[in-house]
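Weekly modeling sync, notes
Attendees: AB, CL, MP (scribe)

Item 1: holo prediction request
CL wants a bound-state model with S-adenosylmethionine before deciding which constructs to order. AB pointed out that an apo prediction alone won't tell us much about the pocket. Agreed to run with the ligand included and paste results into these notes for async review.

Input as submitted:
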Amino acid sequence: MWELGAIPNDIIHLIEQNIEVTPNTKILDLACGKGAVSINLARAFGCKVKGIDLIPEFIDYAVTKALAYGLQDRCEFIVGDINESVLNENGYDIVILASVGDVLGNVLETLLKLKKTVRSRGYILIDDAYSKDDSNKVHHTRELWLKAFSDAGVRLVAEKKAEARVLKDINKYNQDRITQRAHELMKSYPDLVDLFAGYIESQQAECNELEGGNIISVTWLLQKDY
Ligand SMILES: C[S@@+](CC[C@H](N)C(=O)[O-])C[C@H]1O[C@@H](n2cnc3c(N)ncnc32)[C@H](O)[C@@H]1O
């Protein structure tokens, strides 16, 4: 499973519709996982991408993939905690935070940290989700997101909601593989059967929630005011 979170095509589409990207464009992909978004962006635009993730094995995989695509000059991948990276990385044209949740704090705190990593009038891309009403404990409403954008001094340029059909297909593909792998691991580690079974269940619950209609998966493209 290379693509762990966001749908790279949705991100590519939003960028090509709204931003002039050149080979000198610098993109920061925070919590890049195995580098699927970074590498697809470098392939699509020939731009420079730096991906950072906490898990060394994910970074090793991303480096290998970049080499396989001949993109080692365009893509840099390093192991790191993005809470540290947001303090040190700056001057990017675009920063991406895709399927990462609240690792950088609440929505407003996250936006303020991301803002510091991009140049004046730079772009912030967040792939997340919102709830249609305020009954959900994890996901905020769209209104709350919009208020945070305004409070943080960023402009909503465009948004792309994940298509229900596409989301369903991706969820099924991923869930089949998660289930298969969890069953292999149950055989190797019989003491941990409950842990793996619980994981399959929690992933299925997440898919059901995303497909239930009350939670909308969305990619927001924002621009720093100044
Ligand atoms: C669901 S994956 C998303 C990966 C990628 N952004 C994508 O959309 O394909 C979430 C990633 O966040 C990373 N992560 C979580 N907390 C982190 C932290 N504090 N610093 C760096 N990476 C982190 C995990 O290792 C994992 O790869």
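Recorded for review: DSSP finds eight helices and seven strands in the chain.
Action items: CL to compare against the apo run; MP to circulate these notes.
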